[in-house]
């Protein structure tokens, strides 16, 4: 039942092409506008400016896609679909896990498209190991945003979930250093950036571009964000279930 519902959920979500188009085209356009004019020479950390922007825009796309699951959850709550599912063998925990898996699957296309564009047109040259590592940590970096999508889905109504998700995505990306390098921000914003999950997911993904490998401190913070936000999402789910 769990597997069948997941397949059904994936097929239904793929029909919503607006979500897929936005999460793919938006970061791709931003990368082409801002990234293609940047030099390919590496800085002191060993990261070129175009590679920096490529990873940031890919993360923005995967973040947007992962958070979009909140709209599905809100619509299901409003339509009584959750109450119907409680009459089936599907366990409540399995429902939440399905939504997280769905969010991770939605995060894949933006990463692939932006990375391929960076490779083909941005001439970003990485070893096979680096590409694999960057792709993996960037993909897993969508986990805290999948949890944010859960929270939004359980607190927002269907007619407000889209603007709330869009505004949250923009604010997290802007303050988290995905659109502007944190070292170019004013001092106050640098401190604010470090309070966002986007900053740490960006740090984790971009550190994979360097010879030193993945920043384990940043990775642990991302895991921490995922656990905390996941617990909040699960709590909201249980509260919603109790009300129903």
From TrEMBL:
It is found in: Cell membrane; Membrane. Keywords: Antibiotic resistance, Cell membrane, Membrane, Transmembrane, Transmembrane helix, Transport. Residues 18-240 form the ABC transmembrane type-2 domain. InterPro entries: ABC2_TM, ABC2_TM_bact-type, ABC_2_transport, Nod_factor_ABC_transporter. Its main location: membrane. The chain crosses the membrane at residues 20-38, 50-75, 96-122, 128-152, 164-182, 216-234. It is a multi-pass membrane protein. Belongs to the ABC-2 integral membrane protein family. This is Transport permease protein.
């Amino acid at each position: 039942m769990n597997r069948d519902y997941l397949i059904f959920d994936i097929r239904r979500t793929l029909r919503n092409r607006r979500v897929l188009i936005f999460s793919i085209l938006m970061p791709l356009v931003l990368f082409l506008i801002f990234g293609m004019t940047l030099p390919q020479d590496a800085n002191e950390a060993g990261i070129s400016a175009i590679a920096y922007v490529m990873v940031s825009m890919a993360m923005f796309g995967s973040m947007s896609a992962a958070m979009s699951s909140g709209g599905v959850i809100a619509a299901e709550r409003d339509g009584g679909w959750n109450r119907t599912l409680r009459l089936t063998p599907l366990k409540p925990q399995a429902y939440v896990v399905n939504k997280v898996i769905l969010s991770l699957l939605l995060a894949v296309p933006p990463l692939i498209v932006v990375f391929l564009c960076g490779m083909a047109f941005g001439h970003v040259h990485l070893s096979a190991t680096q590409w694999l590592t960057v792709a993996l940590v960037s993909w897993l970096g969508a986990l805290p945003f999948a949890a944010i999508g859960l929270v939004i889905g359980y607190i927002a109504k269907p007619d407000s979930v889209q603007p709330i998700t869009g505004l949250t995505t923009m604010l997290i990306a802007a303050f988290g250093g995905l659109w502007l390098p944190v070292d170019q921000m004013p001092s106050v914003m640098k401190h604010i950036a470090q309070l966002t999950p986007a900053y740490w997911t960006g740090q984790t993904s971009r550190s994979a571009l360097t010879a030193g490998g993945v920043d384990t401190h940043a990775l642990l913070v991302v895991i921490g964000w995922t656990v905390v936000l996941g617990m909040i999402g699960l709590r909201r789910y249980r509260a919603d279930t109790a009300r129903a």
